[in-house]
From TrEMBL:
<protein>
    <submittedName>
        <fullName>Lytic transglycosylase F</fullName>
    </submittedName>
</protein>
<keyword id="KW-0998">Cell outer membrane</keyword>
<dbReference type="InterPro" id="IPR023346">
    <property type="entry name" value="Lysozyme-like_dom_sf"/>
</dbReference>
<dbReference type="Pfam" id="PF00497">
    <property type="entry name" value="SBP_bac_3"/>
</dbReference>
<dbReference type="InterPro" id="IPR008258">
    <property type="entry name" value="Transglycosylase_SLT_dom_1"/>
</dbReference>
<keyword id="KW-0472">Membrane</keyword>
<feature type="domain" description="Solute-binding protein family 3/N-terminal">
    <location>
        <begin position="44"/>
        <end position="270"/>
    </location>
</feature>
<dbReference type="InterPro" id="IPR001638">
    <property type="entry name" value="Solute-binding_3/MltF_N"/>
</dbReference>
<keyword id="KW-0732">Signal</keyword>
<dbReference type="Pfam" id="PF01464">
    <property type="entry name" value="SLT"/>
</dbReference>
<dbReference type="GO" id="GO:0009279">
    <property type="term" value="C:cell outer membrane"/>
</dbReference>
Amino acid sequence: MRKSAVLLPIALLLLAICSIYSCGRGNGAGGSDSDSTSHALPDTLRVGTLYSPTSYFIYREEQMGYDYDMVTRFGADKGIAIDLHVAPSLTSLVEMLDSGIIDLAAYEIPITAEYKPHVVAAGDENITTQVLVQPKSDNPITDVTQLAGREVYVEAGSKYLYRLENLNDEIGGGIKIHQVKSDTLITEDLIEMVANGEIPLTIVDSDIARINRTYYNSLDIGLPVSFEQRAAWGVSPKKPWLADSITEWMGQAEPRKAQARILKRYFELSKESPALSIDFSKGRISPYDRFFRQYANEIGWDWRMLAAQGYTESRFDSTAVSWAGARGVMQIMPRTARAYGLSSSKITNPEANIRTAAAIMKALDKSLSKKVPDSEERRKFILAAYNSGIAHIYDAIALAKKYGKNPKIWDGNVADALLMKAKPEYYNDPVCKYGYFRGKETTAYVRKVMDFYKRSTAHIRL
């Protein structure tokens, strides 16, 4: 008894020492534990990100983006709430990690010596390069040496310009470099200009190129022109266990499948609308003219305008599903449909879909009536809000007012302000509350609807 009585305190002392020093699985001087199994995830995860075409944006009142979709899936799988914070810049995002305002940066932070003291990589690494954007052809440029004698357009002062200048030195000169002022055009504009044949070549990051190829299927983006850049989500060095938890989760089968679907949604599904010839000589616009007539009349619209929307939205395809999940003839988002009493089982029913679209237009008309008093001019604002979501139109009106444009006129004024929301200096402006938006799609949408409407009025009776 005496021997065991002596041994018991010694055993307890050894156990205490083992607990303090983690029995050889030490965590460094700070005492942080990198083993994810010893840390429970919080009930709410504070997540930071940036507005961008790849990470996070708002479209038709829905929060979207590759990083946003992935982190919300992580939260759903782990049963934790996501508290989202949007930073104005990458520097600010890293500072938010440093100060403990956020737990996780769900944004591709470059894995470089600059960020290593402040950020621990979490989850999958994303590898990008700068790529040459060129039209598809039978004789594409397949080697950087073939750029000698070619004209390449890039933003002035951008990383693409510096890379192109270095590349020019590497191949012995000969590249005809054109610098485009960034206050008049942005990278996405240059990509569109290549697609339209206005300029021959440009250079962008591969992820941006992949996003834009979904709008312009005629582009070839297969030639890398720079070294690979690694990037990943990040956590504070004080929380390596959180990085371990995220990395472990991303390696599981179901998250892998979800990631593949999300990647396809943003980087592969085409956003181009197929062409469709309409024969007005038959005295009709679509198989659904009776519905357009009925429900346009209920809201005081010319039915041909509503039909022009249906053409622009889906080419009158009641089974159409967009990359964003919008459905039916009038491409209504499921959440919006539910808000207007349209069930998911009936969202593709042509009559129900058109009836709901008319109700949405009526609500938008009411919301915009004070800001745009002229009813005819307001139609363009309503069309734009239907396509983008009214939040971005409110932002564009505020930007127009601030930067000397007429906030009550669409063409050349609020339309131009909406295009400004693709640039960080404007979507981070204090008057702009809903961040980045690819405004060129919405401005083109309004133009297409109005053009189709004008053509239909020349052939189809009211």
